[in-house]
């Protein structure tokens, strides 16, 4: 079992109970803004979590009362100059978002307070999103003379459609939880986003872990290809699922009228 106490994270916290890990971005003084150090710690934590075979689901949330994550660290951005520095910063942030998106386990963003700019992009890199009543979501980069640089232009348009995504990015307006729910930007609204995210994660942890990783892979790879190509990917992964012990256990448990005990094999 990985002990995160051994690691000197300064900008995040990682807790694990049973199969559920919670990664909290924790720089409340800067509303949890994503500095380069914070990104490095998130990347390291994700690597460590993936070394632990018992971790079956991840919640990403923000520390303090006010924010999930209020974006990239604007002080760091302001100190950068030129095409190359900007491009490198964007690619580095995109890498960590991609690492999160590519995890084989379900990931849930529990959005408390502001999820702006890079903060919304972090939530978009998770599989699903839960917003509390205090959530305010938006991509306000154009107010800084920038565009979203950590995948927002691509993931938001794929999630809610180009028209709605362009509205949010060009107006820079903040959306409250109910509107975010109506446009499909978040999956759930709850009084306490973290409590709800834990409930959802516990439900997911009962399911076949390999099957869930294959669902994620099918959707992710399918979004980048034609319908025909996507259906082929689905069929291949369906075949792969049938070669697992989990499939044998799941179907046997159904026929025996008992709950399946998946081993991830
Ligand atoms: N970066 C660095 N510091 C930030 C920050 C950010 N993104 N957001 C907030 N902070 C800091 C503030 O500077 C302030 O610090 P001080 O107390 O030292 O002055 C502290 O957090 C509290 O913030 P506010 O006083 O501004 O709090 P507020 O309640 O008045 O406003 C807010 C809250 C509306 C979220 C406001 O802080 C805000 O607009 N933040 C910036 C949001 C933003 O533009 N995000 C996009 C960043 S760019 C980006 O993300 C690019 C990309 O895609 C790659």
List keywords for this structure.
binds acetoacetyl-coenzyme A; six-stranded mixed sheet; alpha/beta; four-stranded mixed sheet; 265 residues; 11 helices
Strand content: 15-25%
Alpha carbon gap, first and last residue: 19 Å
Low-confidence residue ranges = none
For the sheet with most strands, the description reads: 6 strands, mixed
Task: Order the strands across the largest sheet as they lie in space.
Answer: 1-2-3-5-7-10
The tally of helices reads 11
Shape call: globular
Order of helices and strands: EEHEEHHEEHEEHHEHEHHHH
Present as ligands are: acetoacetyl-coenzyme A
Number of strands: 10
Quote the average pLDDT.
96
Spatial extent as radius of gyration: 19 Å
Task: Give an overview of the whole structure.
The chain is of the alpha/beta class and 265 residues long. It has a 6-stranded mixed β-sheet, sandwiched between helices. It has a 4-stranded mixed β-sheet with strand order 4-6-8-9. Helix 1 runs parallel beside helix 3, helix 4 packs across helix 5 and helix 9 runs antiparallel to helix 10. It is globular. The model has no long low-confidence stretch (mean pLDDT 96). Bound molecules: acetoacetyl-coenzyme A.
Tell me the layout of helices and strands:
Elements: E1 12-17, E2 20-25, H1 36-51, E3 57-62, E4 67-69, H2 74-78, H3 82-101, E5 107-111, E6 114-116, H4 118-124, E7 128-132, E8 136-138, H5 152-160, H6 162-171, E9 175-176, H7 177-182, E10 188-190, H8 193-205, H9 209-223, H10 227-242, H11 245-256
The structure holds acetoacetyl-coenzyme A.
